[in-house]
Amino acid sequence: MEFAEMIRTGQAQAELLRGPEEPPLRGTLCITGHHLLLSPGPQATPDLWLLLLRNVDSIEKRVAGDSGTITLRCKDLRVLQLDIEGVEATLDIARSIEALSSLESVITSFPFFYRPKGLRLGDAWHFHPPECYYKRVARETNAWRLSEANEDFSLCPSYPRAVIVPRAVDDSAVARSARFRQGGRFPVLSYFHAPSGTVLLRAGQPLTGPQKRRCSEDEELLRAVLAGARPGARGFIVDTRSPQAAKQARMTGGGTEAKAAYPGWKRLHRPLERGRPLQESFVRLVEACGDLEQSMDRWLNRLESCRWLSHVKETLSTACLAAQSMEQEGACILVHGAEGTDSTLLITSLAQLILDPLSRTMAGFQELIEREWVQAGHPFQLRCAHSAFSHARPKHEAPTFLLFLDCVWQLGRQFPLSLEFGEGMLLALFDHAYASPFGTFLCNNEKER
Amino acid sequence: MEFAELIKTPRVDNVVLHRPFYPAVEGTLCLTGHHLILSSRQDNTEELWLLHSNIDAIDKRFVGPLGTIIIKCKDFRIIQLDIPGMEECLNIASSIEALSTLDSITLMYPFFYRPMFEVIEDGWHSFLPEQEFELYSSAISEWRLSYVNKEFSVCPSYPPAVIVPKAIDDDALRKVATFRHGGRFPVLSYYHKKNGMVIMRSGQPLTGTNGRRCKEDEKLINATLRAGKRGYIIDTRPLNVAQQARAKGGGFEQEAHYPQWRRIHKSIERYHILQESLIKLVESCNDQTQNMDRWLSKLEASNWLTHIKEILTTACLAAQCLDREGASILIHGTEGTDSTLQVTSLAQIILEPRSRTIRGFEALIEREWLQAGHPFQQRCAQSAYCNSKQKWESPVFLLFLDCVWQILRQFPCSFEFNENFLIMLFEHAYASQFGTFLGNNESERCKLKLQQKTMSLWSWVNRPSELSKFTNPLFEANNLVIWPSVAPQSLQLWEGIFLRWNRSSKYLDEAYEEMVNIIEYNKELQAKVNLLRRQLAELETEDGVQESP
């Protein structure tokens, strides 16, 4: 498949309207395999404006007389309008953009072709391997070890090659535990809180099922966690599903940790929204924000009914609960939902921002994202396939990462001097999660990468 | 009448004070004629020094022998006092109630306050009409200062001197005053130097059901129009309200009599609607336990932000008429003392950079609110917690300050003052040791001899040590007309006023301090750079001189 096959018209004259703040750009419009380019003036010059085609969420076209207008709604929430000379050119360009922006294959995406000056391939990919974080933990305690049981991703396809487990538990026990957890996501260490000696773990849901199965290795693992922390330490299991949802999960093979099987661990339910309702919340919020003419009542009404801020509040509350339990009550925390790849990661990463000053530095924050989102197997490819403007039927899309960034922004607003990075960093991360020349957010887990 | 008669128990020991952000502290409570004072037992410091006039409402509760008084203040703070002994508690409560509801103005604290600072500038004479008129030097050809209201006989709520068109004499003004609500004939509010267009304000015309007209009134406002040009009348009431006003003797300017003026109706709320709005808003702000849905729902139901949007939109409209359309405007509502003044003063903030400086803003408040006769005494008698029946209370001035804050937030570098300045003005409008906001108009202030017997707020604020707290470090003087966005997404809840006592601003204050330090340091470095550059230039010329033969 050649890109050239998808491009019908190479060039046209066009004017780009970028919104009220910036002046319109006039020039020659080109489409390449990955980009839309506008070059001011009749000839192509180095002074280009470009847009990654992957950034296009939806496109609308209108023709009138001998020119046409294409409206591009981007994943980064920009709305751009192109006035193009020539009806034929307009239609061709629209078709080309539609085709190129909905390519599914990862290998043909731009990061595989991008060679910026001044950077070398292979540079920062190994900045934050799991070994690095393990070294930090090992300095404080020897209750944990780095296990490479998942070396070939056979135990858990969405985990990285190396994970941190209790020293007292060997690899075969880990393997059994993996069979008892959704997606093979057995409990692993997410964060070690030195001041209280307690830990934060994450996992997928236990596959208790309607027969109320048990797994002694899984129980042994969690017992070892408490034993290795502090004498007499308690544990809380923060289930990000409502009690009803958790119960229902048993019908389909999932479930919760039985109280008797896990002494010392108490279960708390803190339901967090996920999946389709979260995406809808996002779509409605963006819709409300785009309408500048509405009355104040309508605005506040729509803000309330989209429920986005409710999600932010619930997420932050749960993260605070986890952090408080670790810091003030000296308890260990295990977080899981159903799959352990969405709301679970929201809680573990936010709890670390609350507890650990290192994660608030620029380097620490990048490491946190690598560890708790990218390597931890948050399915970016699926979740960020479409943004708020897409007309396509949503399948697996959800703005979980954006919700995380919003929560971080809330923290930054309440504690302006405590984050080493600014709002710009969060905006950049949002942009790149959806469409990027870089490969960091491609794919869904380490195995695919 | 002696204050001592009202104070049943002047002093109680072992009282525990609970207030926002500080731990509970035990001490001795004292009641004076004007203040409630709690001094801490430990080091005899004053933990609380509260003006009775700042108290909106009090509640008392009893648990066994311990009485609790909850004091709700006009600045939205809630304070709790635990008083041992039921009788003491009851006495204190009734004393406070009596002292905080004194009728006579001359008993209020500003008449007793003796400043502890050196008075450099007498604020009572800082912003006189003559001084202000002088700034409009280019207006002098068409306008004049009239003293027709010298004895306040023509219009009781106007100041002694007003600015009117030169072509209209004092006799005509007297006639016009009989045709306008409260005698408030049209006067100059603002002169736009760029094109000579003006904002005038007045009360509603008393057309009544008979369709009365007043030729002098028509002549007066027509005198502000250039040949062949039209003007706009912005009526802050919706059309149906303006029409209904005729039944009570009021009305609006009819097209037949004012053919050169186009009338636009807006709908700015007034009186008890605004007061209820404030009460609902403060109530929902105080509820920290509610969930997000309820909070947003209550915020919407209070309608506060809707009022803000309506007022700002009208002010933008007025400014647009002047600046973009090059037309003069007349603004009035019913009485011309509330929404009218909100619009005229906000329009000036948009149009004129001087109003955004500290002195300019003070002058604006003096001119467009105090001298213009906004009835502060009535409007600010009670605030958001009052549970007694309200008559004339309404947070009109607070809404104005909120609108200024919205613009300040959108244009952070265009104002010489910061948010604290606006908060300070809010506080002093409701309860103050200064006499500036006492009374409802200049006539009352004269009768009370405020200038002689009380201190002006401006005397205190304009001292360098105080000004530094209110100066905006980001200020960069510019000559722009600034157009605020009135989209609902751009208007936000003024947390500095409404959430002030509900969540600590410690980290935000630290960040603000840091910003001030960074800007100071930057200025120092810039000065250093300039000095070094000058030295370098000097050295270069020296070398040059030496090298030439």
UniProtKB/TrEMBL annotation, chain A:
<feature type="domain" description="Myotubularin phosphatase">
    <location>
        <begin position="124"/>
        <end position="449"/>
    </location>
</feature>
<dbReference type="Pfam" id="PF21098">
    <property type="entry name" value="PH-GRAM_MTMR6-like"/>
</dbReference>
<dbReference type="GO" id="GO:0046856">
    <property type="term" value="P:phosphatidylinositol dephosphorylation"/>
</dbReference>
<dbReference type="InterPro" id="IPR029021">
    <property type="entry name" value="Prot-tyrosine_phosphatase-like"/>
</dbReference>
<dbReference type="GO" id="GO:0005737">
    <property type="term" value="C:cytoplasm"/>
</dbReference>
<dbReference type="GO" id="GO:0010507">
    <property type="term" value="P:negative regulation of autophagy"/>
</dbReference>
<dbReference type="Pfam" id="PF06602">
    <property type="entry name" value="Myotub-related"/>
</dbReference>
<dbReference type="InterPro" id="IPR010569">
    <property type="entry name" value="Myotubularin-like_Pase_dom"/>
</dbReference>
<dbReference type="InterPro" id="IPR048994">
    <property type="entry name" value="PH-GRAM_MTMR6-9"/>
</dbReference>
<comment type="similarity">
    <text>Belongs to the protein-tyrosine phosphatase family. Non-receptor class myotubularin subfamily.</text>
</comment>
<dbReference type="GO" id="GO:0019903">
    <property type="term" value="F:protein phosphatase binding"/>
</dbReference>
<dbReference type="InterPro" id="IPR030564">
    <property type="entry name" value="Myotubularin"/>
</dbReference>
<dbReference type="InterPro" id="IPR011993">
    <property type="entry name" value="PH-like_dom_sf"/>
</dbReference>
<protein>
    <recommendedName>
        <fullName>Myotubularin phosphatase domain-containing protein</fullName>
    </recommendedName>
</protein>
UniProtKB/TrEMBL annotation, chain B:
<dbReference type="GO" id="GO:0030234">
    <property type="term" value="F:enzyme regulator activity"/>
</dbReference>
<keyword id="KW-0007">Acetylation</keyword>
<dbReference type="Pfam" id="PF21098">
    <property type="entry name" value="PH-GRAM_MTMR6-like"/>
</dbReference>
<keyword id="KW-0256">Endoplasmic reticulum</keyword>
<feature type="coiled-coil region">
    <location>
        <begin position="508"/>
        <end position="542"/>
    </location>
</feature>
<dbReference type="GO" id="GO:0048471">
    <property type="term" value="C:perinuclear region of cytoplasm"/>
</dbReference>
<dbReference type="GO" id="GO:0005829">
    <property type="term" value="C:cytosol"/>
</dbReference>
<keyword id="KW-1003">Cell membrane</keyword>
<protein>
    <recommendedName>
        <fullName>Myotubularin-related protein 9</fullName>
    </recommendedName>
</protein>
<dbReference type="InterPro" id="IPR011993">
    <property type="entry name" value="PH-like_dom_sf"/>
</dbReference>
<keyword id="KW-0963">Cytoplasm</keyword>
<dbReference type="GO" id="GO:0010507">
    <property type="term" value="P:negative regulation of autophagy"/>
</dbReference>
<dbReference type="InterPro" id="IPR010569">
    <property type="entry name" value="Myotubularin-like_Pase_dom"/>
</dbReference>
<dbReference type="GO" id="GO:0032587">
    <property type="term" value="C:ruffle membrane"/>
</dbReference>
<dbReference type="GO" id="GO:0005783">
    <property type="term" value="C:endoplasmic reticulum"/>
</dbReference>
<dbReference type="Pfam" id="PF06602">
    <property type="entry name" value="Myotub-related"/>
</dbReference>
<keyword id="KW-0175">Coiled coil</keyword>
<dbReference type="GO" id="GO:0060304">
    <property type="term" value="P:regulation of phosphatidylinositol dephosphorylation"/>
</dbReference>
<dbReference type="GO" id="GO:0019903">
    <property type="term" value="F:protein phosphatase binding"/>
</dbReference>
<feature type="domain" description="Myotubularin phosphatase">
    <location>
        <begin position="123"/>
        <end position="498"/>
    </location>
</feature>
<dbReference type="InterPro" id="IPR030564">
    <property type="entry name" value="Myotubularin"/>
</dbReference>
<dbReference type="InterPro" id="IPR048994">
    <property type="entry name" value="PH-GRAM_MTMR6-9"/>
</dbReference>
